[in-house]
Amino acid sequence: MTRPLRLRLVLRDLAAGAAFGAMAVSGQLPVWALAVFLLTLVLALCNVRLVARHARLSALLLLVAAVLLGLQLTSGAMNAVVAACSFAGLIAAQRMLSAPDGAADGQTHLTGLLMVAGGAALSGDMTYALCLIAFGVLASLSLALGVVEAAVPDGEPVPVRAVLGPLSGGVAFAVAGAVAFFVLFPRLNWAMVGPRSAPGLGAASSAGFSNTVRLGGAGTIKSNPRVVLRATLTPDPGRDALDAYWVGRTYDTFDGQEWTNVIGALQTERQITLRPASDTLLHQRVELLPAYGGRTLIALESPSRLGNALAHTPTGTRNSTVQLQGGSEVRFTLTAPSYTYEAYSLPPDAKAVGSLALRQPEKDQLLALPEHLDPRVAQLAARVLQGEKEPLAAARKLIAYLQRDYAYTLELAGNSEDPLADFLFVRKAGHCEHFATALTVLLRTQGFSARLATGFFGGARLDGAYIVRAGDAHAWTHVLVPGRGFVTVDATPPSHRTSQASALLEKVLALYEAVEARWRNSVVDYSFRDQFELANALVRPPRQPAQASTRSSRLPPMRAWLTAAAVAFVVWRVGRFLARRQKRAPRMEATRFLDRVDAQLARARVPRFEGESLEDLTTRFARDGHPLALALVPLTRRYLEARFGGRALREGEAEHLLNTLRRALEAEAARRVPKAAEQAGPTARAS
Amino acid sequence: MERLAAQLGRAVQGKPSEVQRVVTCVVAGGHLLLEDMPGVGKTTLAEALARACALSFSRIQFTADLLPADILGAQVFHSQTATFSFRPGPLFRQLVLADELNRAPPRTQSALLEGMAQGQVSLDGETHPLPSPFTVVATQNPVDFSGTYPLPDSQLDRFLVRLSLGHPAPDVEARLLTTRGAASPLASVEAVTGPEELASLRAFAAEVKLDAAVAEYIVRLARATREHGDLERGASTRAVLALGSAARAQALWEGRDFVTPGDVRAMLVPCWAHRVLLRSAVQGVSARDEAAHLVEELSRKVAAPR
Question: Among residues B16, B88, B31, which one has the least CA distance to residue B245?
């Protein structure tokens, strides 16, 4: 085995680095894994193969790491995906530092693929895509160089410079092909990719609503940037940051651990009215994106009417009815990756929020307390309120107290017997669910009707619409004010209600956000539906009701024809090009073969008429019984077949025929020399 | 094809390459024009062909007073039924030997023309299909012999191949003298194939692959005749097609299913020499030789595909 090509190893290690980067950009990998891998990468790039001589020892270390990761996983301190990704990184590191043989190369690339897959499960960021492309390019180049290296005989230099050009061209072509594949191939549902980190609202999906909110349960990632909702508001508020509450559902029953509802499904209709409408309604056209993953309709606080839903399934768009659930939740009856629907909400500053039609069991629950509530909770509430009787004022007092004395944290508290008491009296830190639960329960102990609401807080303006991210998931409190209905109060410190960018970096982030939004819309959340709509937009004019009434042509518009013509033209050109290429290639080969035969015949000074083709020459020789005919006849036949009969020369066949001819020519020359000496006359060269 | 050529060789001795061309022409489905001095075996060759292929055969001796009705047939009045009915003439055979074609007046020659081109005969507003395979083997004496009407160019164009046999070699002639006693040479010709086999052979020849490069070669040859300074009129499109089908049949000799430039060159002179018109006023045999020479020269000048 010769010394492996340095460049190939560098490319391989860089590819592994890019693959690790694809996971690292999610920001969820533990710091020690990052450190270990970075160290490994530096060592590998310096060509220090640390574990080349200690393969067993390093394998043992890997095993230990696997056990440790497993323990962390079972203790709930680590997500399964994160653990798997970390371990993949460790394996890659071990392989990169081993002796660089063929097996290690293959395994390094394989772990690279694993890490890229892990990165896809962790995040779908634009940076992930960059890492993915870098990995693809570097790994392809490294693999291709490996092939070239294997083909070069031992001891000879590898023609790196000569092959890098065509290789780069090939890789560029492959990337272009992958992009085309991405755009044109029917898409699978993104929800199939796997579990995404749940941003504080239940564990099922990225932002899905479960039937319960469990305190201290699943991990909360407020930084998940995926867009779950896009809404167009009429009238348009015109603000860049909406900072509004988007309510999904409410909970009325708390058992000390988790929030539930007393009532299940109610009626199913095209449209559900939650509150009587007022004069000024805020209309929302909402699109729930696949990242949302739930079936609960979202609307701005306080929703009045929801419905007219369309479910965009992978097989097409269908009307979906909606179902009213307990806790004022409205759900789609169809399951689909994405939905669009309409919602009408009362404006946030409306004085008279219409009274909500609540069922009797729900009303009864608004003051219910957990059975084993810590007595200190009620004492705390009484101490803070000091006899305040007005519900809204009481809520404000409690909020001021909570925001002053309690810290916001996303760190997990671990399982606890009484998470509420743990939050209020021990940790004095928690996230929005803790704050909202605390406020609700504190209010209830003092006889104020209240309930927990979950949904999103925020709304960033993008292309005239407002988007809400998975990281904007939030929980807050509804307090019942007599004569006004439920009023939204929020105990969470304002700076932690939504994921906010640093003020200093705002400009840079805005630019990045714009690019990333485009990336997310056209890549991450690009679905079968988008493909369908792209095709549809090419065929049908955009829906404009005003125009539709005046012009009712059923013919497809001009651009549909143009597109069809362009596509047909491209297909035709490509087909012709390929057909020609396919035809030409073997022919050129046959002609090259003929040139070599002619050259051989000329070198051997075989007498030939001017312009006499090989075919004619062979015919003449065969007729005259010339000794060369024996070699020429099969050769000529194969040439003619290859050139005119469409039966190309096989691999090595040309060489074989040429060798036969050369031997025949040599024998002929040997025969002619004594004869020429005998006759002392030159062979007639006809012309 | 080999068997056919062997049988023909029995009748016409010492002319293997000419016999080969004749068979090629028949397989290509074309009509044959034999042009030569009297008495070199043109008629014998045609008759031998008919025998070897087991085709229905008729021989029409063209004379100066031959009328179209004499070859096509005529409406005959039956007095008993008081109706006319068509009585087919000698043209209604699979192989027709038009002997000394250029002795007939142009009117009769034209009557043959429709039959050759369309494979059918129009008479009194009715068309009568000719039997299949329909092949005309015409013989003619060189035009400078007295009492002949030169064939119109349009009719010449309808013959796929024109051949001249020429005098046999002296030793062949000598052998003829010694062996040809009482027995006619035609008697030794056996039927080795039938109309069906001939038809399938023709179908086979039609399927021979003609590569685009070879087709382009034929077209370049045609262009060269059209642009040649000594030629009044070059090869027509029909001449191009004729050369293509002749080359296809020629390819079968080598057992190939594709045409090579060599096939094209082999059939070039027999196919085209009678179709080009010389600019000079030379007539007769020398004109024929001149045309053949020019066409052959072109085949060397025009570069074959490699």
Answer: B31
